[in-house]
Amino acid sequence: MTGAPSHENPSHALAGPIAQAAPAGLLILAAALSVTGCDQPKPRNPPSAAAGPPAAPTPTPPTPDWAKPLLGQALQAAFPKTGACKGNTDIVQRTYAGDPAGVQIHGWGWDAARKARVERVVLTDAEGRIVGAGAGGGERPDVPVALAEVTDGHTGWNADAPVTHGPLLAYGVVADDTACVLGRIDF
Questions:
Q1: Strand intervals (E) in the chain
Q2: I want to staple 162 with a disulfide (CB 3.0 to 4.6 A). Which of 53, 60, 97, 132 is the partner?
Q3: 97 touches 111 (CB < 8 A)
Q4: 97, burial (CB in 10 Å: exposed 0-12, middle 13-18, buried 19+)
């Protein structure tokens, strides 16, 4: 019959273009998800005993001179202003078994306002008291690859604290009175 209405399913006409566009859409979604995993501090689950680094028989290194007056202070008292950073606490890099025992935490930090890496880091306990500190400038070529706004491949930091269990919270010191959240790690 000529001129009779078609009973074809109209969605079949779109199946070809949609099927062709799906792989490109999935690639865009995967790329977006891989970048978002790097832009915000993430709480970490405690590592199993087998996964942690072996304890070095040495004591926790001394606190850097610039941070010694800050030890024991509440973060809010030492740094009443809050900056805007991107960063993360990645791992317990090292544990120390000497006296005092402690840990070294590794992560990365970027001061978004100054468009510069974080040069100084303080660590606090769960109550917000400063218990350790460290320095930025370590190699992290993966960060600018994941985040185009980060233009420095030396955003890595290490900070030591005479603490044997967590959580520890990391903050970038971006001005005399300003710190920004970098992340948290439980161990």
A1: 55-56, 81-82, 85-96, 102-111, 116-117, 120-124, 130-138, 156-161, 168-175, 178-185
A2: 60
A3: no
A4: middle
DSSP 3-state of 122: strand
Check the CA dihedral 173-174-180-184 and report its sign. Answer: negative
Per-residue pLDDT of the chain (187 residues; tens, 9 = 90+): 444 433 444 333 434 443 444 444 433 434 333 333 444 444 444 443 334 567 768 999 999 999 999 999 999 999 999 999 999 999 999 999 999 999 999 999 999 999 999 999 999 999 999 999 999 999 999 999 999 999 999 999 999 999 999 899 999 999 999 999 999 999 9
* Integer CA distances (angstroms), 49 to 103, 158, 185, in order: 14, 21, 15
CATH class held by domain 55-185: mainly beta
Q: What is the CA radius of gyration of the chain?
A: 24
Rounded to whole angstroms, the Cα distance separating 1 from 31 reads 51
Q: Are 125 and 71 in contact (CB under 8 A)?
A: no
The label of the residue with tokens 């190699």 reads: 139
Q: In Å, how far are 16, 135, 147, 169, 185 from 73, measured between CA atoms?
A: 64, 19, 33, 14, 20
Q: Looking at this protein, which amino acid is placed at residue 120?
A: R
